[in-house]
Amino acid sequence: MIEAAAFWAVIPAAGAGRRIGGAIPKQYLPLAGKLVIEHALACFIEYAKIAGIVVAVDSNDDRWPSLKIASAKPLVTVIGGRERCHSVLNALEHLKNVTREDAWVLVHDAARPCLHADDLDKLMTTLADDPVGGILAAPVRDTLKRADRENRIDQTVERTALWHALTPQMFRLSVLHAALQAAIEADVAVTDEAAAVERAGLRPRLVEGRGDNIKITHPQDLALAERILAVRVLC
Ligand code: CTP
Ligand code: MG
Q1: Measured in angstroms, how far is the CA atom of residue 217 from the centroid of ligand 2?
Q2: What does the angle CA 207 – CA 210 – CA 213 come to, to the nearest 5 degrees?
Q3: What is the pTM of this model?
Q4: Cα angle vertex 137, ends 195, 175, to 5°?
Q5: Which ligand 1 atom is at minimum distance from the Cα of 88?
Q6: Residue 52: beta bridge partners?
Q7: Of 104, 89, 99, residue with least CA distance to 134
């Protein structure tokens, strides 16, 4: 019998958190009794089908080594790069040495601490036999406006068929590696994995996830994440 391809998680955690400001990168800020990154890792550590986790950290990161994260599965680090795409590519380079080309890779932001286990399961189950892979995403609810240079409304944008791209984003190792490498070589700024895969001519699937899988971006997001996690404990 041919063994099924493994699932690996990649956690880009090498950002400086410029938009949130402050001396501590946002993935290391305290949130509900742990650090943001510990919440982001928890689902993957606990989920049996994930074979291992690669975390990309900044070369000057002196916080990661002092964390005590209990994991029964491989939890390895690589050095991140200039942009998120470079950090992810470095993690994929490592994975190429330890797993098969057709392994599934789930890329999840270290700054996204509210991923629900049901969503992780839904993504992996929905895409397990997909020829391309895909992403967790949430349909846009609000009416969207395009602004002019003076912040006056230039246009109302039709929101039907528009989605917010979330993470995890799940693709085959070889497909994602080639797509990211090509985007970087062409100097095209891709802010998520799907954009690189789309650029390669493929059409990733959108898997509807919970809208509360927020990314910590601005200071007020921490209080929101705190409330999201608190409600879950009560459920
Ligand atoms: N990231 C990374 N390597 C980079 C830049 C970002 O691994 N060179 C990671 C961040 O640590 C974060 C995720 O990618 O977990 C999403 O990026 P973003 O929200 O943009 O985080 P930052 O780049 O840290 O924040 P900012 O853009 O405000 O500086
Ligand atoms: Mg950034």
Answers
A1: 9
A2: 110
A3: 0.97
A4: 35
A5: 7
A6: 8
A7: 104
Q: Are the beta carbons of 36 and 63 closer than 8 angstroms?
A: no
* Average pLDDT along the chain: 96
CB of residue 113 inside a 6 A radius of ligand 1: no
> Alpha carbon 120 to chain centroid distance?
11
Task: Find the 42 Cα to ligand 2 centroid distance in Å.
Answer: 22
Checking if the pLDDT of 44 tops 70, the result is: yes
From the CA of 62, how far away is ligand 1's center (Å)? 17
- The span from the CA of 225 to the CA of 24, in Å, is 18
Residues 13-42 have a mean pLDDT of 96
Q: Token pair for residue 52?
A: 């291992």
Query: For residue 78, how far is its CA from the centre of ligand 1 (angstroms)?
Result: 15
Distances (CA, A) of 130 to 5, 38, 90, 127: 13, 30, 25, 5
| Rounded CA separation 140/164 (Å) | 6
The neighbouring-strand residues paired with 55 are 11, 77
Distance CA 165, CA 154 (A): 24
Q: Is 83 in the pocket of ligand 1 (CB under 6 A)?
A: yes
Mark 158-179 as b/e (b = at least 16 C-beta within 10 Å).
eeeeeeebbbbbbbbbebbbeb
Q: Residue 132: helix, strand or coil by DSSP?
A: coil
**The pLDDT of residue 1:** 64
| 65-94: pLDDT as tens digits | 999 999 899 999 999 999 999 999 999 999
